[in-house]
Write a structure and sequence with these properties.
The two termini are 41 Å apart. The protein folds into two domains: 9-67 and 101-167 and 291-397, FAD/NAD(P)-binding domain; 74-93 and 170-287, D-Amino Acid Oxidase, Chain A, domain 2 (2-Layer Sandwich). The radius of gyration is 22 Å and the shape is globular. The protein is α+β, with helices and mostly antiparallel strands and 403 residues long. Helices cover 32% and strands 27% of the residues. The strands form five sheets. Strands 6-5-14-15-16-13-17-20 form an eight-stranded mixed β-sheet. Strands 8-2-1-12-19-18 form a six-stranded mixed β-sheet. Bound molecules: flavin-adenine dinucleotide (FAD). Flavin-adenine dinucleotide (FAD) binds at residues 13-19, 36-39, 43, 46-48, 50, 100, 120-122, 150-153, 156, 306-308, 319-320, 323.
Length: 403
């Protein structure tokens, strides 16, 4: 009698959207999967608006999750406003937006609890031609046939495998926030349309999104990109007690005088509709913008996916989407080729050029307002049309997924 084959085992590092898509797709292909997430708490209460594309809903459908209208909301078009609130562009670019939590939560709920370990921080990977193992900061180890590194921008796995690759600062920061209640005068526009403002050398935009906590309500997320020299980041990320938090800072610790200055600038530089968002948001968030490009994303039995592999500037609005399709391409490559290392090479050949093109695309859009291409800057209307056109360059996919 033939013994049934033991399922191959995948270690997935990082339990955010990339790790969860990978876990579901590998389980569906017969792998025994365990996800190791550093955070001890639930991730679902975090996050703001995200852009979506049909492939995201199709992929959720592929893993058996209802991709119904509650995941996203329709956005009716794009409005460009001058400083006084008058319309300068009115573009019929329709879109569907969602909230990060509305993607992450159903993915997490559909994964059995015994496959998802929290409070587990990867410290080191070891591999030979037959196996791979992960060491964690609590002294434990896990062993498998494949390791999927979905551990984000500051990936421990990538730092070990590509120590020379580090995130590059874009030269500007994003001040962000979300609002669920607005004055009746502005609410209809701001909850239905994407709205852009163009202070000199800066970009402000707002995006309607589903209310993060569920239900049918809407919220409005804004992002205001403003140049900041790299040397000034430490000061921005220093709290009122004088402690510098590196290149980010927990939102409640942002110094009150910085928030007061932002609100003052909103009054003087932004259309009233956009300035109201800055005033009404209960919590301003500061996010210096970085991007990252990996020359390789497969290393023997280890694959980098999502933000661990590439991070494009947010103007391509595709972090979740790219992580999901990375996971899908990886699972499909493994299904097509029984040899893990060969399958990972195939995955690398497919997704590395896509990630590199996406980073270039984010830089191209960012150059519009960051001053680097000032003398040849396209019009504000072109910027509005191109903003968020993540997967397309000249209206064609950068790389066909099945290529
Ligand atoms: C909580 C959260 C909220 C977000 N909200 C938004 C949003 O609103 N809009 C948007 O466009 N993008 C958001 N992002 C970023 C966006 O989701 C990413 O582009 C997208 O999530 C890429 O997914 P990822 O799984 O590759 O990486 P990430 O989402 O960055 O997830 C990486 C995961 O790995 C874990 N991790 C890191 N290091 C280790 C380690 N050593 N060991 C184990 N685990 C580790 C992290 O805790 C994290 O959960 C958010 C990311 C996070 C983590």
């Amino acid at each position: 009698m033939e013994l049934p084959l033991k399922p191959r085992r995948a270690l997935v590092i990082g339990g955010s959207v990339g790790g969860l898509f990978a876990a579901h797709l590998l389980r569906a292909a017969g792998w025994d999967v365990e996800v190791y997430e550093r955070a001890a708490r639930d991730l679902g209460d975090r996050g703001t608006g995200i852009g979506t594309r049909d492939e995201l809903f199709a992929l959720m459908g592929r893993i058996g999750l209802a991709a119904d209208a509650s995941i996203g909301i329709g956005v009716d078009g794009r409005l460009g406003l001058d400083r006084h609130g008058a319309t300068i562009h009115d573009l019929p670019v329709r879109a569907v937006t969602s909230a990060w939590s509305r993607i992450w939560r159903p993915l997490r709920q559909a994964l059995p609890d015994d496959c998802y370990r929290t409070g587990k921080t990867l410290t080191r990977i070891e591999q030979d031609s037959e196996h791979v193992s992960a060491a964690f900061d609590d002294g434990s180890r896990a062993h498998g046939d494949l390791l999927v590194a979905a551990d984000g921008l500051h990936s421990t796995a990538r730092a070990q495998l590509l120590p020379e690759v580090t995130p590059g600062y874009a030269g500007y920061v994003a001040w962000r926030g979300s609002v669920e209640t607005l004055s009746p005068e502005h609410a209809v526009t701001m909850f239905q349309r994407m709205v852009f403002g163009f202070p000199d050398g800066e970009l402000m935009l707002s995006i309607p999104m589903p209310a993060p906590r569920g239900g049918t309500g809407r919220a409005c997320h804004f992002v205001w990109f403003r140049p900041v020299p790299e040397g000034a980041l430490a000061s921005l990320c220093t709290d009122a007690g004088g402690r510098c938090h590196g290149v980010s800072i927990p939102p409640p610790l942002i110094r009150p005088e910085l928030i007061a200055a932002l609100k003052h600038d909103a009054e003087t530089l932004l259309a009233p509709q956009l300035a109201e968002l800055v005033h009404a948001t209960p919590q301003i968030i500061l996010q210096p913008i970085f991007d990252l490009k990996s020359p390789r994303i497969a290393f023997g039995r280890v694959a980098l996916i999502g933000d661990a592999a590439f991070v494009a500037r947010p103007h391509v609005a595709t972090g979740v989407m790219k992580a999901a399709i990375d996971a899908e391409c990886l699972a499909d490559a493994l299904a097509a080729d029984g040899d893990v290392a060969d399958a990972l090479q195939r995955y690398d050949a497919q997704r590395q050029p896509y990630g590199a093109a996406l980073v270039a695309r984010g830089r191209h859009i960012g150059a519009y307002f960051a001053g680097t291409h000032r003398n040849q800057a396209p019009s504000t209307e072109t910027l509005m049309r191109e903003y968020g056109s993540a997967g397309l360059v000249h209206d064609r996919p950068i790389v066909a997924r099945g290529a």
